[in-house]
Amino acid sequence: MYRPLHDGWTLRTADSTIPAPVAATVPGSVHTDLLAAGLIEDPYRDDNETRLGWIGRTDWVYATSFEWHDDGHERVDLVCEGLDTVATVRVNGREAGRTANMHRRYRFEVRDLLREGANTLEVSFLAPYAYAEEQRERHGERPGPYDEPYPFIRKMACNFGWDWGPTLVTSGIWRPIGLHAWSGARLAEVRPLVRGDGVDVHVRVERTADAPITITADVAGVRAEAKLAAGESEAVLRLDVPHAERWWPRGHGAQPLYPLTVRAGSDQWRREIGFRTVELDEDAFRLIVNGRPVFLRGYNWIPDDCFPARITPERLAERFGQATGSGANVLRVWGGGVYESEDFYSLADRTGLLIWQDFPFACSAYPEEAPFRAEVEAEARDNVARLAAHPSLVLWCGNNEVIEGHQHWGWRGPLADRSWGAGFYFDLLPGIVAELDPTRPYWPGSPYSGAPDRDVRDPSTGTVHIWTVWNSADYTHYADYTPRFVAEFGFQGPPTYATLRAASSDEPLTPDSSHQKAEDGQAKLLRGLGEHLPAPGSFADWHYYTQLNQARAMAFGVERFRALMPYCMGTVVWQLNDCWPVTSWAAVDGAGRRKPLWYALRRSFADRLITRQGAEIVLVNDTDEEWTGTLELAARDLSGRALETRDEPVTVAARATLRRTPPEHRDGRLLTAALGGERAVFALAEDPAMGYPPAEYTAVVAKETGGLAVTVTATTVLRELAIFPDRLDPAATVDDQLVTLLPGESVTFHVATGRDLDAAALTAYPVLRCVNERT
């Protein structure tokens, strides 16, 4: 019998920093409790982050009381799903246990500490900085990108700040906590190791008595049974289910799920599983599901909030909808965050989003000595077993950019002979995965080229991260790469106007009103415009041009890598989401609003894509059906008139590409390509050199269910037409962005809003924009 203990909590400092306890929410965190009590300002607004550093340097105490009455069970355990991070747990003033790892679950036997009637529960958290800095002093400094001690505490690394995130170092009971009363036996661990035609269910029980135990497992109408004799605690139940339908990644088939129920005595475990196989062709870095290579296109995922307890199932569903709505089939859970919740992986199971799971190590050298090795082993065993049931999880990865740091970031001299994490990535973690989850591949890190002595930046094998673009090179430099798999690459853009406006009290807004954590970030945004777009003369222009340039840069990269299929088999954008309102690489900003990048990626991630690569048009068909029809190619002038055309029948095989050379004309300024209802328009020079006529159009606004329809008809060419209704209604959204129209063509934007927006404002600067608008 499980009983949550989420009511009646208070929070106080261990000293007198806060003179009286405040009400606390569990699950939650110190920051959110202080915010709810009115003791701090919103950490995400203006520069409030910088005034809250004291929270991570303070010891905190959570306390509650509860009634308990002996119901005859032999064991009562205090189950802590997540404590952040270094804590002492006391029941009725007596110590029940200690913790030092945000990433693992804890269970403490407390029956002997409980008493009839009123009981107290207290969780005292040591200041994270105090613990991490003490460990750093003990083990010696480790090189990394930030002057923060995150490698010395098993905690969400990005709490300590990142080049997109604030330094908000948390403490708290961040996942559920409660009492579990039981007798006889309990299911301590259930690991379903799925085959394509069945499942081997590995079970470990904990006992209070040595009587024989019968264990059963049921799935899809098939049952298996095992008997544990006195003193035995582990069993494997094999269930063959040849009639089960296969689980497929989205875009490759359906996602049938089957309830698996395991029982031991009165205890029961139940999850949904999917039958599928997964392999990794390591030389080519191709993921193979059910015997079929899958081109991975999607996003890196960071924690969706600096305070993870605020992330609800509804919020996750919105983010997953944004990922799948843009055409993604994979999320990479990045190594500076956390092992995500059951809700996260269950959503992935249902939607067919593949999950690449990093172990939580990122961008820094890590000590391997005690107590860290034991903590890493415990958390890895806990989470590998916890997540084994999820068919969406297809890859375990040892770390993010740690091996690259050791090879390329000048660490070897400062490290001398100190450990840096190699023992984790090449020994401990692969051993745990091989033991507990051999159905899934393991990869030591990303980027990584397949062997410790290979250069991780070699694009011919394994995975690469491309950061020359953004840091130093124009986005057209993506065309110089011919990689096997791009696991990380990105280009910055500001958040939406409504998000920026809500996060800043500046009046008027300026480019510096947005949080910017990247080194030299503002200058890189302007340099990145290069010859692609005009220099902005106002905040509104800066906002539109930098968002547009982000969208173009990432579309350029994604389409380059997709056009290399099947040599290249993955393009994973940095990043889908933000944890707060910030100028960053995300497609969805910190308030959950879609940036222009999202709309561009929806085109670039489409199952069928027409893209221009150098002097060629490339047709990408990532479906199971041939793509046949007449390919219509035309070189056009700026009036839209066809100067040279070429029509030819084409067949693009399933999961394949086809290249064709388009017609040329000395007066051609635009190139159009159309096939089977898909059309793309390409400018043949950078926009400032195109000589566009000033934009002329008509715009008609009509009411429709749920909002407004805005129909724009082009009199001249309209380049990258976009509408930003959140400037008028922060809750408003639009179904499309960045549309290029030829003269005489029309597009209807559907604006979802509950307000009666002014039609004139909706169809004028700075809400309705295009590159060649009249000034």
From TrEMBL:
Domain Mannosidase Ig/CBM-like: 615-657
InterPro entries: Beta-gal/glucu_dom_sf, Beta-mannosidase-like_N2, Beta-mannosidase_GH2, Galactose-bd-like_sf, GH, Ig-like_fold, Mannosidase_ig
E.C. number(s) listed in UniProt: 3.2.1.25
Start and end residues of each Beta-mannosidase-like galactose-binding domain: 9-175
Keywords on record: Glycosidase, Hydrolase
GO BP annotations, alphabetical order: carbohydrate metabolic process; glycoprotein catabolic process
Pathway membership, UniProt: Glycan metabolism; N-glycan degradation
Pfam families hit by this protein: Glyco_hydro_2_N2 (PF22666), Mannosidase_ig (PF17786)
Catalytic activity from the UniProt record: Hydrolysis of terminal, non-reducing beta-D-mannose residues in beta-D-mannosides
Lineage top rank: taxon: Bacteria
Key word Hydrolase present: yes
GO MF term (any one): beta-mannosidase activity
Gene3D superfamilies: Galactose-binding domain-like, Glycosidases, Immunoglobulins
Protein name: beta-mannosidase
